[in-house]
Automatic annotation (TrEMBL):
Name of the protein: Probable nicotinate-nucleotide adenylyltransferase
Keywords: ATP-binding, NAD, Nucleotide-binding, Nucleotidyltransferase, Pyridine nucleotide biosynthesis, Transferase
Domain Cytidyltransferase-like positions: 19-198
Source taxon at top rank: Bacteria
InterPro entries in UniProt: Cyt_trans-like, NadD/NMNAT, Rossmann-like_a/b/a_fold
UniProt record similarity statement: Belongs to the NadD family.
Pathway the protein contributes to: Cofactor biosynthesis; NAD(+) biosynthesis; deamido-NAD(+) from nicotinate D-ribonucleotide: step 1/1
MF annotations from Gene Ontology: ATP binding; nicotinate-nucleotide adenylyltransferase activity
Catalyzed reaction equations: nicotinate beta-D-ribonucleotide + ATP + H(+) = deamido-NAD(+) + diphosphate
Physiological role: Catalyzes the reversible adenylation of nicotinate mononucleotide (NaMN) to nicotinic acid adenine dinucleotide (NaAD).
Pfam families reported in the protein's UniProt record: CTP_transf_like
Taxonomic lineage: Bacteria, Pseudomonadati, Pseudomonadota, Alphaproteobacteria, Rhodospirillales
Native source species: Hwanghaeella grinnelliae
Gene3D superfamilies named in the record: HUPs (3.40.50.620)
Length: 203
């Protein structure tokens, strides 16, 4: 009886943290939108914006300095204390997500992480280093994004992990679920994109 109570106590103290990795070149309302959706729908306490030193698949040309991207992330998230921009990958010495996650899990044994990404990245994730390891390490929430969803849901990653997909109505349990597990969060789309902002469209 005593043992049961203390186990419950431990799980109540657990904090669930969403990780939104990105270039944030610059940060925009789309990032804010999916972070708030994640906090609410996945029942998270915090979302960390992992402002990437350099996306291994993106060109260095046109990539603003990390300090500028951090400043933009801080400005956009300023109104919401649950959202925390960080350049922690610099301190961890990682640019590959699988490595970042392995280190974060080791450094923060009392936190439970969930990887957050837009549906464009579900299409691309099979090109990431050790991508299957990412599915094994943390639950993954994929957010709806204009134009990408149907390709994402018929793509290699969605197909390979189709049996590990939690339906939307169960997304509130995603953070506590044992990987591999993922969910497609399709409540409301947001049209913003950094590419559009850089090219002078409204984003
Ligand atoms: N409007 C959006 N809806 C859903 N997910 C988004 C949206 N904007 C960004 N994301 C997600 O946020 C993460 C970080 O995105 P990133 O910083 O690359 O912005 P981006 O707008 O996709 O940039 P770019 O256009 O330069 O590729 C990625 O997982 C991306 O899919
Ligand atoms: O690990 C990889 O091989 C890898 C390849 C491409 C992108 N990522 C990560 O994916 C996240 C989204 O990147 P971006 O540039 O699309 O915003 C960011 O955290 C990147 O570090 C990771």
């Amino acid at each position: 009886m005593k043992k049961k109570r203390s186990r419950q106590g431990r799980s109540q103290r657990r904090r669930y943290v969403g990780l939104l990795g990105g270039s944030f070149n610059p940060a925009h309302d789309g990032h804010l939108h999916i972070s708030r959706e994640a906090l609410k729908r996945l029942r998270l306490q915090e979302v960390w914006w992992l402002v990437s030193p350099q996306n291994p698949l993106k060109d260095r040309e046109g990539m603003a300095p990390l300090a500028d991207r951090m400043a933009s992330a801080k400005a956009v998230s300023a109104g919401d204390r649950r959202i925390r921009p960080t350049d922690i990958e610099v301190k961890l010495g990682t640019t590959y997500t699988a490595q970042t996650l392995a280190k974060l899990i080791r450094h923060y044994p009392n936190l439970r992480f969930v990887w957050l990404m837009g549906s464009d990245n579900l299409i691309q994730i099979p090109r990431w280093r050790d991508w299957n390891k990412i599915f094994m390490l943390v639950p993954i929430a994929v957010f709806t994004r204009p134009t990408y969803d149907s390709r994402a849901l018929s793509g290699k990653a969605a197909q390979r992990y189709r049996r590990c997909r939690l339906p939307l109505y169960a997304a509130g349990r995603l953070a506590q679920s044992r990987p591999p597990v993922w969910s497609f969060v399709s409540f409301r789309r947001h049209p913003a994109s950094a590419t559009a902002i850089r090219s002078g469209e409204s984003g």
